[in-house]
Structure formats: structure tokens, C-alpha cells
Amino acid sequence: MSSGTFRALVVEEDASGRRVELRDLAVADLPPGEVLVRIAYSTLNYKDGLAVTGKGKILRTSPMAPGIDFAGTVVESASPAYRPGDEVILTGWGVGERYWGGFSQLNRVKAEWLLPLPEGLTLKRAMAIGTAGLTAALCVLALERQGVVPGERELVVTGAAGGVGSMAVALLAQAGFRVVASTGRPNEADYLRGLGATEVIDRATFTNPGRPLERERWAGAVDTVGGATLGGIFRSMAYRGVVAACGNAGGTEFTTSVFPFILRSVQLIGVDSVVVSPDDRRQAWTRLASTLPGDLIDQMTELIPLDAVPAYSEAITNGRIRGRVVIDLNA
In this structure, are residues 66 and 48 in contact, taking their beta carbons and an 8 Å threshold? Predict the structure, then answer.
């Protein structure tokens, strides 16, 4: 990358079709914004996979660089909040959807979308955490705010081998909870136990038909899947249990009875990480940086170059990615 050019993975759709390609661009091609950032790392989320493959209507403009996360160094700033040389991170805010994203060596964004790199993290590890870790931390904080604390009963994490699920298992285990990991990939059992899961169960536990209420088991749940899995969780929630829902890879609709709510006072909390407040972001990132050991973050991370993103996007949308994928923008 010269001082005036950079490389980006660009998705373009027009009357002639859909193209996904690496392009060399000029700084003048970037959108307006207060802060110019040289991106070191981005990360591949499920949403990014949908954007690259076209399997979901994620991108709102064309041409567009996907990538809802990035970490890098400030090059220029018109905001007093940041100076050249500052290391920063960005997750959400519509970046990689409505606005030029992280699969680009340079980006220009609003200052309010950025956060300083949390103390104790490198740029690479910050992206190993990324939106997945932020979402998981927001789920954990939501459970704790509703009074869920380590005790006799277990917590369950669905889609546990994925990015958000892996982070949730690790965070909850580090906080002292007994965590049961639900997955459709039994071959990942050793990986999940390495993150702190005390037991690994098949996702069919929740998707198979069952009675409206079953034996109370879960004090809390982090559901990254949605669909039938989310509906099935409620059957075994304990009295005053709490479910934090944050994903829809298994479907956007679910069915359950009213009994868990009116007989066991179960709560369902939705968790968003796109436009969550800066204060909540900072609290979640502080929790992540102070709780997750670096070697544990590395254990769930794979590093790839930008040109590998299309192939990995197919894999993540087909449920074949374990943990986190970090993209080295300069490899």
C-alpha cells in the first residue's frame, strides 16, 4: 500500500451481475468522515459471510467493502478525540452494511464510532474478540443484571462452536458459571471443553419435539441460533431463568408456549451489538479485556489473508467455521 492507494475487497452489484474482487483504490475513493484509519485487522462474522456470498441482504449500497469490525491506527483526524498514531477499534454502527467496511486497508469514519484500543489487548486480539466477543459480553452482562449468578444450576450456550458461542462459553466459565455447550458439531467437544464447558450436548436436545414444560435445568441461556433452538430452550428453563437471545442462524421465528413465562417467570432479553450505547460498549470491552486470557483468545482464533475471505465466507455461512477468523489486511 502506497501513501495514496490501498487494497480492499469490494462487492459490486449492477445490471450486469454481482462481483466480489480485490481492488486497488485511492484515498479519494473513501467516503467522508472525521478520522482516517489504517486498518491492520478485521474479522469474519456470520453477517460478513452473508454479505460476501450474497446469501443475505446485508449490503445497502454498491460498490461496498463489507466487514463490520476493524482495528487499526489513526492516520488523520479532524476530531479532538483522536490523534495520528492512536490505536482504535470499531464494531457495528452499520459499517460494512450501509458504510464502507473493514475489509479495506484504509477507512474514513465518524469519530463517535471508534473506541480506543482497550488496555491489555493487541489489535489482533481485539479483532479475535470483535463483534462476536462484544455480543457475548453484552449477553453475559444482561444475564447478570437480571440476577443470574454462579450457583447450583447450569447455563447453556447454543451454537457454542461459533464465534459468539465460543466467546460466551469462555466468558461464562471465567466468571465461575457451570456452562453446558450446545452444538451440532460433536467433533468440537474437546475444543469447547478447552474453553471451559463442563458438558457438551447435541443441539437436537432443543430442536426435537418435547412437552411444553420439562425438568427445570437452566438458570440462564445465551442463544446465538434462534429458530427452533430458541423455542426449545424455554421448556427446561428454571424458575426466574433468563434467556439472552442474539442470533438467527437457525431461523428468525420460534414457537413456544406461554407456560415458561407465566408458571416459571422466565425472561427473554434481546441483545443488539450494532447501535448499543458507547457506555455499554466500554463496559463490555473492559470485561473482555480483563477476563479473557490471551492464550484462550488465541486458542479460538484463525488468521487469514484478505484474499481468502470469499472461501471462508462460504464456510461460515455453511456452519463450517470454528471460533473466530481474523483477517490480516496486510498479509
Answer: yes
